[in-house]
Amino acid sequence: MRELAAELYKTVRRPAVWVCVLGLMMIAITIGYAVPWLAETFSKTTQGLPPGTTLADFKVTLYPQNFVFNTVGDPLGGVFALILGVLLQGSEYGWGTVKMLYTQRAGRVSMLAGKLAALAIVVVVMVIGLFAVDAVASVAAALFDGKMIQFPAAIEIVKGIGALSLDYAFWACFGFILATLFRQSAMAIGLGLAYALVVEGLIFGFGAALLSWLKNVQQWFPIANTGYLTDSLGSAKIKGIPESPPPFADATHAVIVLTAYVVVFVVISAVLVRRRDVTS
Amino acid sequence: MAATNAHDDVVSTHGLTKRYPNGIVAVDGLDLVVRRGEVYGFLGPNGAGKTTTLRMLLGLIRPTAGTANVAGAAPGTPASLTKVGAIVEAPAFYPYMTGYDNLRLLAIYCGVPAKRVDSALDAVELTPRAGHKFSTYSMGMKQRLGIAAALIKEPEVLILDEPTNGLDPQGMADVRNLITELGKGERTVLVSSHLLGEVEQMCTRIGVIRKGKLVAEGTIDELRGKSTLIIRAKPADQALAVLAGECGADKVKVTDDGAFSLSVEPARAAELNRRLVQAGIDVNELRESERSLEDVFMELTGTEGGL
Predict the structure, then answer these.
(1) Which of A41, A119, A242, B265 has fewest C-beta within 10 Å?
(2) A13 and B96 in contact by Cβ < 8 A?
(3) Interface pTM (ipTM) of the complex?
């Protein structure tokens, strides 16, 4: 508990953490609500839309009954969680504070546990904060359009918070292990983004469309599973737009795979932290 | 000086060795003992293995061979770290937090009361700047905050790695005085340095390390050895005969510049002067000579660069 209290003490005082959390919320409102609402309200284009469907039909995704789908479907949150994971661990190497921490009373693994617990708390706060601002934004959208305010059932909101927390936990732990491996922040963020964009983004994104067997391989990779998890929650029904097919793997599969990644990342981080010499 | 039974050995190493995968042996079979209440100077040129040794004593680096005991426990274990305060190279803190918050953080980690933060800041005279961010501190203030951090636990042992590095002369003097004060009483201080002057001023005992090996250990007086008498007299051959007769041939050495160096008690200076004068020899110079610590250091480490 002492280690967690200490980690939280320095984490809440760190401006970069708040920049990440608040930055994600601002981007979520801007990209998730403000820009779509403006486009769907004022643009008259029907280019690329099925006959009889207008952009205004998409506004239903912005209303409270669909805010869970909108929030868990946010494509940028994982990047912010990755950065958080990197910052909390990588900066200790950059500032040289790791040697100061390891010469205090607690053991290295206890310190790591405290740090990961603090990271988990920040991630959950970020997720709940994101849900809160998205809920407010969805209410605002409905009020502007004179629509009825109807939120999904509480269980759906809890499921959404759980799914997004696991999604961000994976990303945060991915950033954490990269920072531990490379003992710095810059390379960890760079490689984390490169992995997301190149390995899962390009190879599976394009490759799976051409080679059907790649789908079977992809189901064991993490980012695909964050997609299965969010898709399993469902999606907004839009007039004239066919419903999305069910995800390749179900939510249970996604939860197991993502949890396994988180556990493996934590264990490897613990082994590295415990065994490595601190020479810088 | 403190007694020398095993219970008083606050820091001890036996055959402590660190060999890196690239084959470099940073510390080679080091046997070191620091006793309770000492201010022990760990002296050596740059790259001699001082920092690696101190890191091993703090559990930051694992030794390849050998054992160590710090404050009654294995290095790096909670049992040992509870009793040890340390600065390893430049003090490292969180730049976005104030000096106070940085120390408060350590107090939480160590489970010590918050009031210790105030007393530690007082001890290093940093209270007026405690509310400022660490990133705005001068080098001297950072170093003092590092010492305050080391004091938070009220440790039995302080391990300080080159604590005056990067300080201006006034800052160096302040830190030296502080360390001398901290070393009074039961507290043990192990301080590494490559600066002879500061070690000479602060330390009660010194260990000299060279290429990872301890090449000498003792008090400053022990390391300097006995003082000698230097005599310059003419004619030299007659003077040599008289001095050899008085002191023994093995006690008289002729130095490169033609003077005689006598390994005798300096109190015999007047007597020897009289003998030489009575023998009709002109005595041009007669003085006591004491080896400086610098001479000893040069001899032991074969280096000038570290000074």
Answers:
(1) A242
(2) yes
(3) 0.86
Q: Do B76 and A13 touch (CB under 8 A)?
A: no
Of B40, B301, B292, which Cα lies nearest the Cα of B182?
B40
pLDDT means per 10 residues, chain B with 307 residues, are 59 94 92 92 89 94 94 91 89 94 94 91 90 92 90 91 83 84 86 83 88 88 79 91 90 86 85 92 87 74 53
Q: How far apart are CA B131 and CA B152, in angstroms?
A: 17
Contact between B108 and A96 using a beta-carbon 8 Å cutoff: no
The model scores a pTM over 0.90 = no
What distances in angstroms separate CA A73 from CA A119, A195, A218, A235, B50, one per listed residue? 22, 20, 19, 9, 55
Is the Cβ–Cβ distance between A105 and B78 less than 8 Å? yes
Are B148 and B107 in contact by the 8 Å Cβ rule? The answer is: no
Please give the structure tokens belonging to residue A71.
Answer: 């929030």
Residues sharing a CB contact under 8 Å with residue A202, sequence separation 6 or more, in sequence order: none
Q: Do A2 and B104 touch (CB under 8 A)?
A: no
A contacts of B55 (beta carbons < 8 Å): 99, 277-279
Residues of chain B whose beta carbon is less than 8 angstroms from a beta carbon of chain A are 55, 58-62, 76-78, 81-82, 84, 86, 88-97, 101, 104-106, 108-111, 149, 153
> Does A216 reach chain B within 8 Å, measured CB to CB?
no
